[in-house]
Design brief:
This protein has helices at residues 2-12, 32-43, 47-77, 82-109, 115-143, 155-172, 184-195, 199-209, 223-232, 236-249, 300-309, 331-334, 340-347, 373-377, 385-391, 394-404; strands at 286-290, 293-297, 313-314, 317-318. By secondary structure, the protein is mainly alpha-helical. It catalyses: propane + NADH + O2 + H(+) = propan-2-ol + NAD(+) + H2O.
């Protein structure tokens, strides 16, 4: 109960106050808000839901294989040996956590009265982990490397080996005999998202689109990168190649704005209210009016989590400790209407000279080639898609949704738009 109350207090505490008329970047950023909601899933709400199912059964048993095993291997291939040293030590600790989660799950399964809520928890935990971990680690492994050996596993290949075969088929499926309802449909859909719908590639494009609101540098791709992606993901270039060529062309300031403001056939996406990853697979976007507010979701499962799972009652049972997905969640909404230079300054992503941005869309440290706050001041103000959605009439929202789901891949506008 204490953790649930902490979530409610934190979520409803006003970000704007008489003493501080502006938000502060410490509450989150363009990508950090995704990680924040992910971490809060470990420590808030019902103890079995959060600490056992979400954290130990799904996050630590399934997805740390890609985080603490696959990613350190990729780091070593790029000459970084510190990260593998640290992460492999962490992974040894994960083994104990996994054992704790397994024991807790078997204890809970011994009471048939728990099966209904365990099935709910596993569906929510699996889908949210997939949306966030695959988004982040998939992007790091695929787009943050210079190792383009053809015999190196792609993230999709790693996922199939470490998560689908090692976790799902070897660990999760055998638990069915104890009464655990396995979300087979969601696991297959997660694979479908990665392999057929380009989920990781869509996320990487979104991260690069908003480079100016981050705190890292993302360098443009080379022909060697293009060749590797096409080899591992046939058809990749036709979907994403042109946009990445534009990213390269627009990476250094030369009278133009950052790529998010330029005409490169990319429409800025709406955020998913639940997982905070944007609705990047456009065809899957759904909407709902929840708690008096119109919200967009990246998939029907995230809508179910907000509308059904995270509620005081579930299928007639009282579930007061689940908490709620409320408060100031969307990063864009916090800065709606702001000038972009003020946004970056407020987040603290400015170098010591007071004007050069921390983030850059290239790795050239020549001061003449780096973006500054002056470049951002001429850009249009930041607009929150959720604020704009709630300002629409019902007819406008219906038309917006119909158009949105016809968009993509790679953020493209509908062909008949």
């Amino acid at each position: 109960a204490r953790t649930t109350e902490r979530r409610r207090q934190r979520a409803t505490t006003p970000i704007f106050s008489p003493e501080r008329a502006a938000p502060t970047g410490r509450i989150g950023d363009y990508c950090g808000t995704i990680g924040r909601q992910f971490a809060e899933g470990f420590i808030t709400g019902d103890a079995i839901t959060a600490a056992s199912i979400y954290l130990t059964i799904v996050a630590e048993t399934a997805f740390t294989n890609t985080l603490f095993v696959a990613m350190p291997a990729e780091a070593a291939a790029n000459g970084d040996y510190l990260l593998p040293t640290v992460f492999h030590s962490v992974q040894s600790d994960e083994s104990r956590h996994i054992s704790n989660g397994y024991a807790t799950l078997l204890m809970a399964l011994s009471d048939e009265g728990n099966h209904q809520l365990l099935a709910r928890d596993l569906r929510y935990a699996w889908w949210n982990n997939h949306r966030v971990v695959d988004a982040a680690i998939g992007t790091f492994i695929e787009y943050g490397t210079k190792d383009r050996r053809k015999d190196r596993e792609s993230y999709a290949e790693m996922w199939r080996r470490w998560i689908y075969d090692d976790y799902y088929r070897s660990y999760l499926v055998p638990l069915e005999k104890y009464g655990l309802e396995i979300p087979h449909d969601l696991i297959e859909e997660a694979w479908n998202q990665i392999w057929n719908k380009g989920y990781v590639h869509e996320v990487a494009q979104f991260f690069a689109t908003g480079w100016l609101a981050n705190y890292w540098r993302i360098d443009p791709m080379t022909d060697k990168d293009f060749e590797w992606f096409e080899f591992k993901y046939p058809g990749w270039y036709d979907k994403y190649g042109k946009w990445w060529e534009n990213y390269n062309r627009l990476s250094r300031p030369n009278g133009h704005n950052p790529i998010v403001f330029e005409d490169v056939d990319y429409e800025y996406p709406h955020r998913c209210w639940t997982c905070m990853v944007p609705c990047l697979v456009r065809e899957d976007m759904v909407m709902a009016k929840v708690d008096g507010q119109w919200r967009t979701y990246c998939h029907e499962m995230c809508k179910w989590t907000d509308e059904t799972a995270f509620r005081p009652t579930y299928q007639g049972r009282q579930t007061p400790n689940m908490g709620q997905l409320i408060g100031h969640r969307e990063w864009e909404t916090l800065y709606h209407g702001w000038n972009w230079a003020d946004v970056v300054s407020d987040m603290g992503f400015v170098r010591d000279d007071g004007k050069t941005m921390v983030a850059q869309p290239h790795l050239d440290l020549n001061p003449d080639k780096m973006w500054t706050l002056d470049h951002l001041r001429r850009c249009p103000p930041l607009q929150s898609p959720n604020v704009l959605l709630n300002e629409m009439t019902d007819d406008e929202r219906t038309a917006f949704a119909a158009r949105y789901v016809r968009g993509g891949p790679a953020g493209r506008a509908p062909v008949d738009a």
